[in-house]
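Schema walk-through. Below, the input block comes first and the output block second. Nothing else is stored per chain. Lengths vary across the set, and this one has 537 residues.
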Amino acid sequence: MTHSYPSDSSPHAPATAAPAGAPVAAAPLNDLQARFDEAVALHHSGQLAAAQAAYEAIVAADPAHADAWHFLGVLAIQCDDPLRALDWIGRAIAINPGNAMYYMNHGNVLRQTGHMQAALASFDQAIAMAPDFTDAHVLRGNTLHELQQLEAAVASFDRALALRPQDVVVCFNRGNALRALGQLEAAVASFDQAVAMEPEFAEAFVNRGMTQRALQQFDAAMASFDRAIALRSDFAEAYLNRGLTLQEFSSTPAGLEDAIRMFDKACQLLPDAPEQHLCHAMALAKAQRLVEAEAAARRALAADTNDSSGARMFLAALGAVPMPDKIPDALLHKLYDAKASVWDTDANAHYQGAELVGRALLAQQRARAMDVLDAGCGTGLVGVLVRSMAARLDGVDMSQPMLERAREKAVYDTLACGDMVALMRQRPQQYDAVVSAATLVHFASLQGIFEAAATTLRPGGLFIFTVFPNDKDPGGFAVDHLDGMAQGGIYVHGRDYLHTLARQTGFAVQGMELAIHEYEANEQPKMCLLVTLVRTA
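--- output ---
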């Protein structure tokens, strides 16, 4: 888990406020400014009920008192009442639309309530009025990061640091955005700046260590995690990531046992964190301590009934529970929504599946351009390759952030967010080709998908996809192995199974070849089956 901080997301109070606890002089009832100063002093001293009553008395006497409406909104934020906060700050803006602070605090409430695009518009309005408003740049950057608009987030943090170069939390959040963007060396440099400014910033050491691990810098990563643990002996994330680093880089039994101890410590500190229990389970399984691995995976599942960690698939791989029909929706969204902004960059280095499928379709010679459905289109990597031969190109995917990236490529005629099987069933004989890269790997039985593809294809239509081979049982399907693929929502399918299912659903097998689908973190190739089926008449 990557730590992040809001960097100054607290509501802003006026410079006229008295120090906390300062005595407040009584004010004449007809002196609104004095009464406002008294209300602000009450607010800053933590007497929120009294401050609210004072602000409300002011707006009752003068409904056009914009500052009083604004700080009623600020107080509502502090009291966790966002609807009132939006109303009251909105009134302040209506009275005085030229105050940048109002827009910034309004944007902050919108962000906290999930209205991200509206929040961005408010921050942009604040910055347009006050270009050097550092806090607005910071909050804008945080919002853009949450929206996975990482390049723009980094630019906002850069602007904030240019205005306030010693802001350690902004520097830290900039490192997080760079890390998510895949600019790992720059991210390490940003975390280095953060810990140079704040040597006891344990979270920055953890995130620096995670980035160093991604750079294959084992010793540096371990030193970062050790420093975080020295600063905070109860820091579960530091133990977890130290264990992950040992598991990834140590090939000795002693290293694996050390990793297990790290995971055990993390689970003791955060017993309700499912991912930590699953990491513990993976390490125990690798050490052939399977009974303990099952118990750890069951703890992960109990802590997360939506199964965003993939614990049920891990248990199925152990043979402890029935095999799920497909990847859990929560896990699918966690995996792909977060990767949308960097998927294309990562694909250039590691992922070959889209190119395999795209080139397989391009190799088919047809007399006319084809109507093509990209089922599980992701960010549109296949679509870019096959657009030239498509009369119509449609895409469907479950991940909205992935679809937004596909939309930016402007190669699809339509894009739909939803279940590709349902969509194919609703469009009988509309396509000449269905292509699907790295999507069928998330389903156990493929019968429903094959039937839906047969429905949506015209006679002679092509169904081209990738799956991972089931070498242990060529006639069946199974959850993939326990060292990371199972809880990544991955299934394997046998050659004989695919041949039989194709015949049963009205397809002929034109091709089924072994190819490199991607390169794993250790640069080892992961092989797939590239399958081309033809819809029989």
